[in-house]
Amino acid sequence: MTQTLLTRIAEAREGAPRTRRAILDAILGDPDRALAESFEQLAERSGSSVPTIMRTCRDLGLAGLREFKLALAQELAVGGSPLHRRVDIADTASDVVAKIARSAAASVAGVRDQLDLQQLAAVVDAIATAPHIDVYGAGNTSWFMATDLQARLFRLGLSTTAWADYHLQQVAAGAQKPGGVVIAITHVGGMPSLLDAVEIARAQGAKVVAITRPGTPLAERADWVLGLRVPDDAVMHVGIDAYLAHLTLIEILTVLVAQRVGEPAVQRLRGVRSALQQHGIDVRTHPLQSWNGGGVSNG
């Protein structure tokens, strides 16, 4: 039978040099924390160094940080109870809070290590310059994220529409034009009607961005893939880990697009905020913002 990663770590600990044993002990003592933190943080916690951690990973048959975290995340996804993948039936309330919080934090932290920055930069440029952007959501969770992304991009002054109805997704795809962008959001990535809409949009000359798991049918049909792997959920079809990871990606994407658009985006946001304040919807006091050519500054 194939050994688990944690079993290999436990065996490697025996006879390991002191510094390397401290790394292995830190991982075994709190695997969820090891999954959430960077190599620099793990090095500080274990009193070692990043090069020593890299050598330890290679000795375990893993090429580096990304491979280590993926292997550890997959292993931690197995087990638990029907309530949650990391929670046991007999856990106390304190245990439940700690385990779910660590699991959520690990999912968010994992976004940084999975994103392809070149793909991300290309997506940002395409969105910022597109004459129109359509956002497709497949399923309840993906639909919520699609509408959230649509609202964010619209506030930046970008022509954006979100579609949940499969028939209307295909109608909108047929109305796309060269230079347009379609952003398809689905963790599963295999809904036939969504795949049809994506194919129609590409035939019209639009570029397709897939926010999904790597290797899905949607990913194979996209021009750019912002792929995220997260552990499966014990209860929901798309669990909280996938939900938080995708929302984090949407936040990253929105901020980068705002930076790319520059001053017009800042002016648009100020106008929206002013309108909301005048009508009592947003009564908080916000600092005035301006664009200095290199970013947003308060003034």
Automatic annotation (TrEMBL):
Provide the SIS domain boundaries: 123-263
Keyword check for Cytoplasm: no
Q: Which residues form the HTH rpiR-type domain?
A: 3-79
- Known InterPro entries for this protein? Homeodomain-like_sf, HTH_RpiR, RpiR-like, RpiR-like_SIS, SIS_dom, SIS_dom_sf, WH-like_DNA-bd_sf
- A Pfam entry, by short name: SIS
Q: Does the keyword Zinc apply?
A: no
Query: What is the top-level taxon of the source organism?
Result: Bacteria
Listed under GO biological process in this entry are: glycolytic process
Print the keywords alphabetically: DNA-binding, Glycolysis, Transcription, Transcription regulation
- GO molecular function list: carbohydrate derivative binding; DNA binding; DNA-binding transcription factor activity
Which PANTHER family has this protein been placed in?
GLUCOKINASE, HTH-TYPE TRANSCRIPTIONAL REGULATOR HEXR-RELATED
Q: Output this protein's name.
A: SIS domain-containing protein
Gene source species: Xylophilus rhododendri
